[in-house]
Amino acid sequence: MIKNKIYANLIRELAITDFKLKYKGSFFGYLWSLVKPLLLFLVLYTVFTKIFKLGNSIPDYPVYLLLGITLWGFFAETTNLCMNSIVGRGDLIRKVYFPKLILPVSSSISSLITLVLNLFVVFGFALYTHVPLTINLLLLPLVILEFYVLVLGVSFFLASLFVRFRDVGHIWDVLLQALFYATPIIYPLTLVPNRLLKIIMLNPVAQIIQDFRRIVISPKIESSVSVNGIVLGLFPYVFTVVVFIVGYFIFQKMAVKFAEEV
Predict the structure, then answer these.
(1) Model confidence pLDDT, tens digit, residues 176-205
(2) pTM for this structure?
(3) What contacts 5, CB < 8 A, 6 or more positions away?
(4) Residue 58 CA: distances (Å) to CA of 189, 214, 222
């Protein structure tokens, strides 16, 4: 019991430290975490509404796009931070014994804090653009929890491999680029051929982003279940749990040699 309390305090302190270090020496501090997705939003919004006019077919496209970018930013940032969490604390691992799981968890919590702050900005933007926020927002913590479980599972897996194979970092950068365009962040699903649409909606990140949009914007937005039916539609939810369990056990199995390999 005492050990668990100590470890919980360690996670909290490391998460707070990571959050502060992220903006250390920066004049604007946290605002950079907001400015970067907003700049990307402005560029993509201009391109897809003024030039290609793809976004014009989506109701409340500004909120649709900003929410997608915000959630994707959390996924990309957290997996990259957690992937480096073990290697980046190599000196600490060699000197002090503690559960290595604490490091990716604390890194992920610091990113989760940023996500929650950014979501409040999205809500404010939704109200500004006259998107009515409903009682469905009460479901948001469940979707955030699901997203966090998925991201943590992927992060456990990446952090474990990165200790031994540094090329994983470059491979993951490429995969993130591909996954960005394979996820309905910037384009309407109505433009995707039905066969490809069914495959895209098996992606748990796509399903989570759509669930966020259904809660914040409209329940009429496509979901994994509405596209693939109940059986296949539940696949992303099951896959999220499997990724977390597999990532956890791989991490724990490889953690015994981290001190020797970092």
Answers:
(1) 999 999 999 998 787 888 889 999 999 999
(2) 0.92
(3) none
(4) 9, 13, 12
